[in-house]
Predict the structure.
Amino acid sequence: MVHGIGTLLVGAVAGYWVLERAEKHKGSLQRIGRIIGWVVILSSFIGVACRALGCFGPFDGSGKRGWCPFSSSKTAPAPGIAP
């Protein structure tokens, strides 16, 4: 789990680096760099939160886990096929 969070935090640093590089340009290249930088940073922090919270889905009291792109659980085998 720590390895995944560490990788996501490095991704946030990379997004910050893109933001810094974008400031040295002008016009549409600066705007695109800012957008890409913020998307990378925000998605990294959302990923960190998802990993830290265990990707719990709807908090409706059902106790079911929600879908998470970082879940390491294996899918169940198809019906009728023995593991």
